[in-house]
Amino acid sequence: MATLIPLVPLSAADWQKTFFEIVTGHAPLVWEQVAAGAATIAVVFLPSVLLLAMFSIWWERKVCGHIQSRPGPNRVGRFGILQSLADGIKLILKEDLTPAASDRLLFRLAPYLSFAPVFAAFLALPFGPNLTFEPKLNAGVFWILAVLSVEVMGVILAGWSSNNKWAIYGAMREACQMVSYEIPLGLSIIVGVTAAGTLNLVELGHLQGGGLHTWVIFKNPFVFCAFFVYFIASLASNKRAPFDLPESESELVAGFHTEYSGMRFAFFFFAEYAAMFVVGGIQTSLFLGGWNDPFGLIGRYYSQWIGDPVTHRNGLIVLNLIGLAIFCTKALGIMFVQMWLRWTLPRPRIDQVLYACVKVLLPAACVLLLGTALWELMVPSWHVARMLTNPLPWFDYNPVKWTDWARGGATTSLVVQVILALIGLGLLSAVMLWVGLAFIHGRKRRQRLTEPEPIPA
Amino acid sequence: MVADAGLLAVATQVETLSAVLFYVFSGLTAAGALGVVLSRNIVRTAVCLLFTLLGVAGLYFLLESEFLAAVQLVVYVGGTLILIVFGVMLTSGSQFRRFQPKPAEIVIAGSVAVVLFAALVMAIRNAHFVTGWMETQAKYPVGALGQALLGDYLVPFELASVVLLVVMIGAAYLAKARRREGRPVARGGGPGANLVTPLSQKARRWS
Lengths: 457, 207
Description:
The complex is a heterodimer. By secondary structure, chain A is mainly α.
């Protein structure tokens, strides 16, 4: 149902050329839009989401293994890459168990109710300047938040319809946790949106096209902190460790999906890993520059070429594909940090989890919102000054020209952004150095805790 | 002339598409509402309410108010419906207990429903519905909404937030666990009776 929603009429004067128009050269008719949309979802989105889930399950097991000083799956295919495929085949072939005392209809409905909202959120993510499924969603960020809050129902239903007290405990904890953490989640998103000025994800991407210092996370120190608040809140809303009480394997057997086996269980896992990617995608598009590279080249060439898309067709297609690769890399990087945290931190109790939400993250988010609102009021920023003369939603500017900044009266803004960008770069390189050193050190260890046995011939 | 014919063709196709989508969403809403009313199992009632709310969100999308659709999902589905489901699950006893209305209840409910239905039908017949496209503010509706909320409608906005604050404080007060003051720390005698170290006091504070 959610996939039919974007097919409302396009306005005649639409400056956002869709990929369809760039490839075929003419504007699509209405039925062509419908067909193209349905084909995109069936052929591109659904397989990609499932492949992404399979890949991230394998990756999680590899990360888990290496952190625990063992190799992870390495027997099925080179580096164990086919392990997820083997698991998928196994799960499909399993017996389809429905507990006799459960509510059958709701038991069967719950995995789909858990997966469908996450899949609907994929439709709003800006994978490239022309690669968004619905580019005119003017409340894009809010739409993703709204749709992720429908996922809570799926989990509650799963726990309830299993007719199993451990499942119900897991479902109640999960609902409590997800719903409470939506508050700091929303507030930290508002902080970012206040600094950026728009909720439309494609416009956010265009806004950050001028280079590393134009990324929204570096706009002011409050947004910088709000990124981390959002990251922690998104961990909790995804039921990821250290907030994975709903499926705390050592306590509740498997939490709310105890009674699920086979493909239904797989659907919950698809939902979880797809939600991790969606959350990483939100952080990327709102805070970390979207599809833009740190040098601003994609933004510059796109603004030059989009005026005449027929001549520069191949260039635009290449730009879109590079943007897609950059977006996915950033979102997968955030997923890696989520996986890293899972296997590093212990699990707090539910009251400690809620304490962290209500007494730590919520006041922090409110203070950051106040700070960023005051900052936006008092410090003139570049895009506001420029918007008076150039009402395009994206900004065709050369970020290296300092006179542009000085003319808009936004020198303080530029200095703060550059300082924050340097701090961010420093943090990122420190983290990557740490991970790289750990990797090298791990390989150099003479004796690992478990060595794989040779397979007898 | 050609351009007009082209635009007219597009407009007709768009109207057909919108009509189809309207029937789909309103069908979903109506089916969900029927499920809420006719279902005998209380948790299934809540799930049918979920589909009703999703259908209404779809209708808001058709009206080009995507912000309102998202608000519908966040507030109704992610808030109100979860609250209803919690209440249902924690108070309903057995999962398979079904509604068993008495004949008197059926008669009263039926007559109230008939009266309400007649009133709605009369109201709909006398209402004036706009046919054709209405120009919603296409460019930045969310921004206009924000400006209206903090501009023309500031007083209702602030009053609503005060009401919500009062509700939150009241709920927190009602749900607060009462600690009994002056509880004896340990009964006299017995092993380990006087092991009240500062560490165990700290642990007690956390548990």
